[in-house]
């Protein structure tokens, strides 16, 4: 077997350690487009995915999601098959009036985020609260399982 066939090929189809003549140019063009597009609006696509932080302590896992403008009636949390799913719908409406014009902007959309939970989590003990557009979900960790030592005996 050829050892080179076991080495993974990267995105630019070159092997590790091999210099691509267009790699630097490709990275520079990507950087320019990223810098250029940073100043433009995202047209609502990334605004629908809430930013989320996950913290872990000895006793629980805490999820914090930014959901500005949402209330408890706009958010749904489900647990199934070891997955915690947060769903919701954002509705935004802005209206401006002046003597010569009237502007109404509306945006609607739903979002969903799913987090895998550790095995053994009791869904009945999960708590969630929303305040000032920040959702906090507390997931108590399951108790640690004891390790049982098995005695090895000599076969007769």
CATH architecture of the domain at 46-140: Sandwich
Count, helices? 1
Counted beta strands: 7
Poorly predicted ranges (pLDDT <50, ≥5 residues)? 1-10, 42-46
**CATH third-level topology of the domain at 46-140:** Immunoglobulin-like
Question: How does this structure look, described?
Answer:
With 156 residues, the protein is mostly beta strands. The chain has a domain at 46-140: Immunoglobulin-like, CATH 2.60.40. 10% of the residues lie in helices and 38% in strands. It has one helix and seven strands. It has one helix at 23-37, and strands spanning 52-56, 60-66, 75-80, 83-97, 102-116, 127-131, 134-140. The strands form two sheets. The chain has a four-stranded antiparallel β-sheet with strand order 1-2-7-6, with no helix packed on it. Strands 3-4-5 form a three-stranded antiparallel β-sheet, with no helix packed on it. A hairpin with a 2-residue loop joins strand 6 (127-131) and strand 7 (134-140). The longest helix has 15 residues, at 23-37. Mean pLDDT is 78; it is low at 1-10 and 42-46.
Lay out the secondary structure.
Blueprint lengths: L22 H15 L14 E5 L3 E7 L8 E6 L2 E15 L4 E15 L10 E5 L2 E7 L16
Antiparallel strand pairs: 1-2, 2-7, 3-4, 4-5, 6-7
């Amino acid at each position: 077997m050829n050892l080179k066939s076991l080495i993974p090929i990267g995105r630019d189809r070159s092997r590790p350690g091999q210099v691509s003549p267009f790699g630097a140019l490709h990275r520079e063009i990507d950087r320019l487009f990223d810098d250029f597009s940073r100043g433009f609006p995202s047209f609502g696509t990334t605004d629908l995915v809430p930013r989320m932080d996950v913290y872990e302590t000895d006793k629980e896992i805490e999820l914090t999601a930014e959901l500005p403008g949402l209330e408890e009636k706009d958010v749904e949390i489900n647990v199934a098959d070891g997955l915690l799913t947060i769903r919701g719908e954002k509705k935004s409406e802005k209206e401006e009036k002046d003597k010569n014009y009237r502007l109404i902007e509306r945006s609607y959309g739903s979002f969903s985020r799913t987090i895998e939970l550790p095995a053994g989590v009791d869904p009945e003990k999960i708590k969630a609260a929303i305040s000032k557009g920040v959702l906090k979900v507390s997931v108590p960790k399951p108790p640690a399982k004891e390790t049982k030592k098995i005695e090895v005996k000599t076969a007769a």
